[in-house]
Design brief:
It contains 10 helices and 15 strands. The protein has 315 residues and is α/β, with parallel strands linked by helices. The protein folds into 2 domains: 196 residues, NAD(P)-binding Rossmann-like Domain (Rossmann fold, 3-Layer(aba) Sandwich), CATH 3.40.50.720; 87 residues, UDP-galactose 4-epimerase, domain 1 (Alpha-Beta Complex), CATH 3.90.25.
Amino acid sequence: MSALVTGAAGFIGSRVVARLAASGRLVAALDDESAGLPLPAATAHIVPVRGDIRDAAVVEKAMAAVKPRLVVHLAAIHHIPTCTAEPRRALDVNVVGTQTVLDAAARHQCGMVVIASSGAVYRWDDIALPETAPLEPQDTYALGKLANEHQLAVWVRRNHGRGRIARIFNAIGAGDPNAHLVPDVLRRLAAALSDGAGRPLQLPMGNTESRRDFIHVDDIADGLLAMAGDGDTTPLAAYNLCSGKEVSVRQLVERIAAKLDLAIEQVVDPRLVRSDDRLSQRGNPELTAERLGWRARRSIDDALADIIALHWQRR
């Protein structure tokens, strides 16, 4: 099955492309490289295409290159503060761009489209959120992701293809180009060390008690492939990609410091506190395990070890 992957140079997308190509599929890898990471190199199984998903001609070029039966749509602005600060641009990329991809998928009669949604689409609640939980986005990023789910539903009804929605919780691992929590914490730790401050290092933080369901990026890539290979004939389905466990920001930073053998003091900086930051975001992975045979296999400590080995040693 040939495939198109959007966001192919990204944190998750690059791993999905590598897995599809290794399985012998011909893959069009589409990305505008705006996150600062390069597209995969051209091989017998990978056709890199540089461009914006809002550009219909670029998406058509990628489609025509491989005539995909499968689309894995991951391209988006993922950084929530950026989405909050620039809602018009975020919705243009994340919603209008998604429609451009779906329109091309319809023209090329793609049989399966997998899109990346988010655990942020659920109503705020302090439970392990199942796929049946109420949906109530509270920020621009989540709003765009919920719109994507409805866009895919319309595409499925009109084009008789199958659609799979991946509600991805908090991705963690080496090579994240976005200013997400762990890369940002490492940057602040490096800055504190360069200031020559004594031990313990004072680390400015925002919402330290917020809890998140962190999931290794390689597990996410495996989960997306499980959805792509779903043999169920159900036209549309949504699945959580999550661990079912929560760790607070404070606990995560303490784990990072312990791995680096650093004594730190987390100091809340009001300028870093996000007013739209939910206290809890934990998913229930049981439906995904039951239907697709997928569970998160890698731990937070595995992810932190990978991140530190890549990022901290480079400083």
